[in-house]
Amino acid sequence: MVAIEVPDSYGYVVLTAGVLPAVTNFLLSGKVMAARKQYDVKYPNLYAVPGYHKNADEFNRVQRGHQHMLENLSDFRFVSFIGGMMHPVTCAVSGVLYCAGSYLYMMGYSDNKLDVKTARLKKGGPILMLGLMVNLVCAAKYAVSLIK
Known about the structure:
Keywords: Membrane, Transmembrane, Transmembrane helix. It is a multi-pass membrane protein. It is found in: Membrane. By secondary structure, this protein is mainly alpha-helical. The protein contains five helices and no strands. It has one domain (10-146): Four Helix Bundle (Hemerythrin (Met), subunit A) (Up-down Bundle). The protein is 74% helix and 0% strand. Helix 2 (56-83) packs parallel to helix 5 (125-146). The model has no long low-confidence stretch (mean pLDDT 92).
Protein backbone atom coordinates (compact mmCIF):
# COMPACT_ATOMS: atom_id res chain seq x y z
CA MET A 1 0.00 0.00 0.00
CA VAL A 2 1.18 3.51 -0.80
CA ALA A 3 0.66 6.30 1.70
CA ILE A 4 0.34 9.91 0.66
CA GLU A 5 1.36 12.54 3.16
CA VAL A 6 -0.56 15.77 3.00
CA PRO A 7 0.61 19.08 4.46
CA ASP A 8 -0.72 20.20 7.83
CA SER A 9 -2.83 22.97 6.26
CA TYR A 10 -4.39 20.70 3.64
CA GLY A 11 -7.74 20.77 5.45
CA TYR A 12 -8.17 24.32 4.21
CA VAL A 13 -7.83 23.06 0.66
CA VAL A 14 -10.53 20.46 1.31
CA LEU A 15 -12.81 23.19 2.68
CA THR A 16 -12.25 25.64 -0.16
CA ALA A 17 -12.14 23.15 -3.04
CA GLY A 18 -14.62 20.60 -1.73
CA VAL A 19 -17.11 22.22 0.64
CA LEU A 20 -17.18 25.91 -0.34
CA PRO A 21 -17.87 25.30 -4.06
CA ALA A 22 -20.80 23.05 -3.09
CA VAL A 23 -22.25 25.82 -0.92
CA THR A 24 -21.65 28.35 -3.72
CA ASN A 25 -23.38 26.03 -6.19
CA PHE A 26 -26.40 25.74 -3.85
CA LEU A 27 -26.61 29.53 -3.64
CA LEU A 28 -26.40 29.93 -7.40
CA SER A 29 -28.92 27.12 -7.96
CA GLY A 30 -31.33 28.93 -5.66
CA LYS A 31 -31.04 32.04 -7.81
CA VAL A 32 -31.83 29.97 -10.91
CA MET A 33 -34.85 28.40 -9.19
CA ALA A 34 -36.12 31.86 -8.21
CA ALA A 35 -35.61 33.06 -11.79
CA ARG A 36 -37.53 30.02 -13.11
CA LYS A 37 -40.47 31.04 -10.98
CA GLN A 38 -40.16 34.76 -11.74
CA TYR A 39 -39.85 34.33 -15.52
CA ASP A 40 -42.11 31.24 -15.77
CA VAL A 41 -39.54 28.91 -17.33
CA LYS A 42 -40.62 25.31 -16.73
CA TYR A 43 -38.58 22.13 -16.81
CA PRO A 44 -37.25 20.37 -18.86
CA ASN A 45 -35.99 23.56 -20.51
CA LEU A 46 -32.47 24.39 -19.39
CA TYR A 47 -32.77 27.80 -21.05
CA ALA A 48 -35.75 29.95 -21.97
CA VAL A 49 -36.73 29.94 -25.63
CA PRO A 50 -36.68 33.40 -27.27
CA GLY A 51 -40.04 34.17 -28.82
CA TYR A 52 -41.79 31.64 -26.58
CA HIS A 53 -40.78 32.93 -23.16
CA LYS A 54 -41.51 36.61 -22.64
CA ASN A 55 -38.34 37.25 -20.60
CA ALA A 56 -36.02 34.72 -22.23
CA ASP A 57 -32.93 36.93 -22.14
CA GLU A 58 -33.40 37.83 -18.49
CA PHE A 59 -33.75 34.21 -17.41
CA ASN A 60 -30.98 32.96 -19.68
CA ARG A 61 -28.54 35.43 -18.16
CA VAL A 62 -29.20 34.02 -14.69
CA GLN A 63 -28.92 30.44 -15.95
CA ARG A 64 -25.75 31.22 -17.90
CA GLY A 65 -24.14 32.78 -14.84
CA HIS A 66 -24.67 29.54 -12.93
CA GLN A 67 -23.70 27.33 -15.85
CA HIS A 68 -20.33 29.09 -16.11
CA MET A 69 -19.34 27.84 -12.65
CA LEU A 70 -20.42 24.30 -13.49
CA GLU A 71 -18.35 24.32 -16.69
CA ASN A 72 -15.04 24.85 -14.92
CA LEU A 73 -15.72 23.51 -11.43
CA SER A 74 -14.15 20.10 -12.07
CA ASP A 75 -10.95 21.69 -13.39
CA PHE A 76 -10.82 24.04 -10.42
CA ARG A 77 -11.23 21.23 -7.91
CA PHE A 78 -8.69 18.99 -9.61
CA VAL A 79 -5.94 21.60 -9.75
CA SER A 80 -6.74 22.74 -6.21
CA PHE A 81 -6.38 19.29 -4.70
CA ILE A 82 -3.12 18.72 -6.58
CA GLY A 83 -1.64 22.19 -6.10
CA GLY A 84 -2.61 22.15 -2.45
CA MET A 85 -0.15 19.31 -1.88
CA MET A 86 2.67 21.86 -2.22
CA HIS A 87 0.93 25.17 -1.56
CA PRO A 88 -2.10 24.51 0.67
CA VAL A 89 -2.63 28.05 1.99
CA THR A 90 -2.22 29.63 -1.45
CA CYS A 91 -4.70 27.17 -2.97
CA ALA A 92 -7.14 27.71 -0.10
CA VAL A 93 -7.08 31.49 -0.54
CA SER A 94 -7.48 31.03 -4.29
CA GLY A 95 -10.46 28.76 -3.59
CA VAL A 96 -12.18 31.57 -1.72
CA LEU A 97 -11.43 33.90 -4.65
CA TYR A 98 -12.86 31.37 -7.11
CA CYS A 99 -16.11 30.94 -5.18
CA ALA A 100 -16.57 34.65 -4.47
CA GLY A 101 -15.76 35.40 -8.11
CA SER A 102 -18.27 32.78 -9.30
CA TYR A 103 -21.00 34.37 -7.20
CA LEU A 104 -20.12 37.87 -8.37
CA TYR A 105 -19.87 36.66 -11.97
CA MET A 106 -23.44 35.37 -11.82
CA MET A 107 -24.65 38.58 -10.22
CA GLY A 108 -22.96 40.60 -12.95
CA TYR A 109 -24.08 38.36 -15.78
CA SER A 110 -27.69 38.52 -14.62
CA ASP A 111 -27.62 42.33 -14.25
CA ASN A 112 -29.85 43.36 -17.14
CA LYS A 113 -28.73 46.99 -16.87
CA LEU A 114 -25.30 46.06 -18.23
CA ASP A 115 -24.32 44.50 -21.52
CA VAL A 116 -23.07 40.94 -21.05
CA LYS A 117 -19.36 41.63 -21.68
CA THR A 118 -19.25 44.55 -19.24
CA ALA A 119 -21.22 42.62 -16.61
CA ARG A 120 -18.86 39.63 -16.73
CA LEU A 121 -15.73 41.75 -16.41
CA LYS A 122 -17.11 44.24 -13.93
CA LYS A 123 -18.48 41.76 -11.45
CA GLY A 124 -16.43 38.68 -10.74
CA GLY A 125 -14.99 37.29 -13.95
CA PRO A 126 -11.38 38.33 -13.28
CA ILE A 127 -11.62 37.25 -9.64
CA LEU A 128 -12.75 33.70 -10.39
CA MET A 129 -10.20 33.33 -13.18
CA LEU A 130 -7.43 34.51 -10.84
CA GLY A 131 -8.43 31.83 -8.33
CA LEU A 132 -8.44 29.15 -11.02
CA MET A 133 -5.16 30.22 -12.63
CA VAL A 134 -3.23 30.47 -9.35
CA ASN A 135 -4.26 26.92 -8.47
CA LEU A 136 -3.38 25.74 -11.97
CA VAL A 137 0.14 27.14 -11.54
CA CYS A 138 0.43 25.51 -8.10
CA ALA A 139 -0.64 22.15 -9.57
CA ALA A 140 1.84 22.46 -12.44
CA LYS A 141 4.63 23.34 -10.00
CA TYR A 142 3.83 20.30 -7.86
CA ALA A 143 3.62 18.03 -10.91
CA VAL A 144 7.05 19.16 -12.10
CA SER A 145 8.48 18.52 -8.62
CA LEU A 146 7.36 14.88 -8.89
CA ILE A 147 9.27 14.25 -12.12
CA LYS A 148 12.59 12.59 -11.39
